[in-house]
Amino acid sequence: MAAAPRWRERLFALYFLTHLPLTLLIDLQPLLPAGLRPPALTELLEWYAAAFRDPMMLQPPEWFKAFIYCEAFLQMPFFPVAAYAFLKGGCKWIRTPAIIYSTHVATTLFAILAHILFHDFSKSEHSGPQTQRERLILLSVYMPYLLIPLLILFTMLRNPHYNQAEKRKRK
């Protein structure tokens, strides 16, 4: 039986281990009332939004806010489970949850990336990307959150360790 390549499992574990604090400290801020946000984290978010010209994090459109709720209530509980499975390695039970997670995230990221590429940010209250270069820089921030879930999906579907059907013995 072929084992899943450990480098991929380690990459996936690192992805989930780093995604958890980023989600808690940065991504979920738009869902909180301004008075509940710690000032240092608000400053960090404002710095990020200005440096990468990402107005969606300061004033998220409703569809983007829906994705943040999905991240909070669907994805975030999965992060420690996935980190454990991939750190331990060889956990076949992670296959179905990982497929669900990765397809969900890829679907949301396609919408976000399309918005970054095609939306007219000139009417945004906060400065958004205006040039192609600025759009590509912002795209590069979001791209790992598409590519790694696609690699997870590919691994779960194509790696013999994860997609091999269990053979049952006949009595």
What does this structure look like?
The protein has helices spanning 6-27, 39-52, 62-75, 78-88, 95-118, 132-142, 144-158, 160-163. The protein is an all-alpha fold. The longest helix has 24 residues, at 95-118. It starts with 5 loop residues before the first helix and ends in an 8-residue tail after the last helix. 19% of the residues are buried.
From the helix content, strand content and strand pairing, which structural class follows? mainly alpha
Strand content: under 5%
In terms of quaternary structure, the protein is single chain
In DSSP terms (H or I, runs of 4 or more residues), the helix count works out at 8
Helix content: 55-70%
Distinctive features:
8 helices; mainly alpha; 171 residues
Task: Describe the structure concisely.
The chain has 171 residues and is mostly helical.
SSE topology sketch:
Elements: H1 6-27, H2 39-52, H3 62-75, H4 78-88, H5 95-118, H6 132-142, H7 144-158, H8 160-163
